[in-house]
Amino acid sequence: MSDNAPLGGLEEIRNELRRFAAEREWDQFHSPKNLATALTIEAAELLEHFQWLTEAESQNLEGEERERVVLELADVFLYLIRLADKLDADLVGAAQRKLVINAKKYPVSLSKGSAKKYTEL
Which is the most buried residue in 11, 17, 44, 114, by most CB within 10 A? Predict the structure, then answer.
């Protein structure tokens, strides 16, 4: 990715990821299965940063540790975008649909202040 041109929006990031993979001839490795696996591994690497922290410590990351966590978030984000691209999935549209679904599953009147799953409300 170019250092001088800020990327805006999922489409631009998706296109940059396409170019990045094409330049390296990595498309052959980027099956949905392989990308989902890589996404899971990156999510586990993100979780590793929080493994032994208290709740308070996890909410107050600073300095280099915070930057490491932010970069792990970026890895997860990039693999997610690449996987969605390979599956021709509209992430923004799906997220909007999922918010509507979740609002129905978790009505404020039943779920406010509760960590219960919708099947237990």
Answer: 17
Span 27-50, pLDDT tens digits: 999 999 999 999 999 999 999 999
From CA 66, how far away is CA 58, in angstroms rounded? Answer: 10
Q: For residues 121 and 101, give the distance between their C-alpha atoms in angstroms, rounded to a whole number.
A: 15
Q: Tokens in use for 80? A: 């997610």
Residue whose tokens read 């970069």? 71
**Using CA atoms, how far apart are residues 119 and 121, in angstroms rounded to an integer?**
6
Separation of alpha carbons 24 and 89, rounded Å: 24
Half-sphere exposure of 35 (CA within 13 A, CB side): 20
Phi-psi region of 26 (alpha: psi -120 to 50; beta: other; left: phi over 0): alpha
Please, are residues 79 and 39 in contact by the beta-carbon 8 Å criterion?
A: yes
